[in-house]
Amino acid sequence: MKKLIKLILLLQIPVLACCEKMDESQFVIDKSYEVKYMEKGELPQVEIAIKDLTPSQVTFEATIKNLTDQTISRRGFLYSTINAEPTIGAAGVTNRLSTAKTDTYNYTLKTLKVDNTYYVRSYIICNSKDTIYSPVASFSTAAKSPIVQTLPIFNCVKKAAIVCGQFIESGDLLLSYGICISEQPNPTIKNTHVEASDTATDGNYRGKFGVFFDNLKENTLYHVRAYAINEKDTVYGDNRIFKTSQGGSFSWQFNNIEGAKADGAYERILTHVDSAMYYYRNYTNLNKFLWVNYSPGTPTADCNIEGWMRVGENPRYQWVGTIQHEMCHALGVGTASNWNSFGSPWNKEQATLTLRVMMKDMSVNLIHDGMHFWPGGINQQEEVTQGTPNNKGTYTLKGHLMLKANAMVINAMRNDGLTTY
Asked: Which residues, including other chains, have CB under 8 Å from residue 97's CB and lie 6 or more apart?
């Protein structure tokens, strides 16, 4: 069989050379694929434009011109990062067909790679079998690095601190951001770091962000830096230093112990006042002496700015959250002479930022009336047990973190200028 094939091939050459009248149709495989060429002036033209280019996506737009009586059987786009003259079927070239039937059609590529040059062109295939390409357009992708700064630390206590950063420029393709912390200078994400709450207000702007660092060492020097990571690199803000405190100084005296014991309230009040003292000694830098009175005639509980507290016989109010709520009154909430001078929402930065960081939402506001504040004021037990969601619905502050937040907020209110007289 191999010899026969060779013979046929040899015979074809002279036949083609000398037999002018031979039927050429026997050499045509399929007449439907016969290529016809039009005069140059009759061919349509294709133009291409690059639109809406970002570091992550781009839109190609093509326009067909001088179509005349031609019918377009196929149209699409070709792009490549390695082939500067992309054509159909070429190596390293991606072909994206368009189903549009109009003279203008487009395609959005949503998977751009950073730091690459792309070559793109459009094409059409006419009913004449002509394939017509547009000129090649090219563009490069590069992610702009963010710029962040570490803000001064304003609310650090015995066991915790609120640390904030801010975007000067947001950068592109942002992956994460937050605060690094270490006992050594210039901490990096290789040290302890915590991602911050999302502060984005739109696609082009990012503002302040912050982290609540807990379980820190007492009276210890820490270094912190804001950081941001995108697909290109990791950037840091300036190194800042803070020192944790020795905590708040709170003492108390239990009055009417016999009455409380007789009604079975003594152990509850003792336990929950001690718990409230734990939070205020470790999560504030404030000082107060409290006179805690068991008062069966008091419907709930109350406290004045001198620290005189009454706890009623209802077990619901013989509870740590209620005690902390009343301790806020002893520290000026609703009782200080300048309480009403602070707007609602709270018009000072430290308490506002503290609450926002604790709630993981930079859109949360601290609201108050003549006697109370919220969220974080623990005006009802359910604010702790069931929790309070942030505005975005992405996080619910509850349990021991709500109790810590209450202490941190009142500490910040005092830093903002709330008095105890």
From this structure: 74, 75, 76
Assign 14 to helix, strand or coil: helix
Encoded amino acid at 88, one letter: I
Using pLDDT thresholds of 50, 70 and 90, give the confidence band for residue 68.
confident
Closest C-alpha among 197, 196, 178 to residue 188: 178
Residue whose entry in the numeric block shows the structure tokens 């093509």: 62
Encode pLDDT of 208-223 as tens digits: 999 999 999 999 999 9
Residues 6 or more apart from 346 whose CB is under 8 A from it? 352, 365, 366, 367, 368, 373, 413, 416
Give me the domains of the chain, ranges plus CATH numbers.
43-140 (2.60.40.10), 147-243 (2.60.40.10), 249-415 (3.40.390)
Three-class SS of residue 237? Answer: coil
Under a CB-based contact definition with an 8 Å cutoff, are residues 305 and 421 in contact? Answer: yes
Q: What is the rounded CA–CA span in Å between residue 346 and residue 62? A: 54
- Give the separation between CA 143 and CA 171, rounded to whole angstroms: 7
pTM reported for the whole predicted model: 0.75
Q: How many C-beta neighbours within 10 Å does residue 198 have? A: 16
Alpha-carbon span 53 to 174, nearest angstrom = 17
* Model pLDDT, residue 4: 32
- When comparing pLDDT for 230 and 358, which is higher? 358
Distance CA 288, CA 328 (A): 11
| 72-83 confidence digits (pLDDT tens) | 899 999 999 999
CB 279 within 8 A of CB 407: yes
Q: Tokens in use for 357?
A: 């960081």
